[in-house]
Amino acid sequence: MEIKIENLSYYYNEKTSLQKKALDDINITIEKNIITGIIGKYGSGKTTLAELMNALMIPSKGNVKIGKYVLDKQINNKDIKEIRKKVGLVMQFPEEQFFNQTVLEEISFALKNFNYKVDKLYKQVIDSLKMVGLDETYTERNPYKLSSGEKRLIAIASVLVFNPQVIIFDEPTIGLDYKKKKQIIAIIKMLKNKYHKTIIIITHDVDLLYAITDQIIVLEQGKVIYQGLTSKVFSSQTIVFPQIIQFINLAKKEKGIDLEKTNNIKDLIKDVYRHV
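RE: above sequence
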């Protein structure tokens, strides 16, 4: 599912003396079935944009087109609910998503809210757990007492359970060790390649974006300063280079070695061996 954002602006504390512009005349297209990264400094408007695409907030000006639905000041509550079925948001801190004392209740919460059939509820919960690499034994566990990595997986499962066409991840790998980061990255790739989901990743992690995104949107002070293919973003000085690109550039500068640009560390190692 494609998302098209037209002339979008958003103000916090709108129509008060404390009014602050968070987004300023945004015009972007999130293409379907690809992974789009959104990057920018703190306060650039990344999370605000995500919450607008998920209909958690309403634009001050302009609109967000999600399939046949248009999110603007005229939208009704029924259509807002439909948008939230289409666009799932995995928040940066999983505890912010949790409402219940067992994993079963937590993951099934959205299904009940969207009035899914009760007789299919348990199977959908188990299926969503399996998609993130967890099993049925987790259903009776308390989500608040899980490890940080497990909490992140439960948060993802609680979104996958209602099968949204678009999934937004807000800082999906922050605070995780290398092993858990690899697991999250594998899940995101699976959602794109196997289930043809439209994926949006909001992060400061340029290495993550370089590894898995198809296109990148760069925000600065509420404005879009760049949108384009990931390979082209990292061939300019638009944002900080990923570590793998820094290494390749350093090899060229210090040793005169032309290594092939890649986002796969194993391919880079093979290329280094070929030159040494």
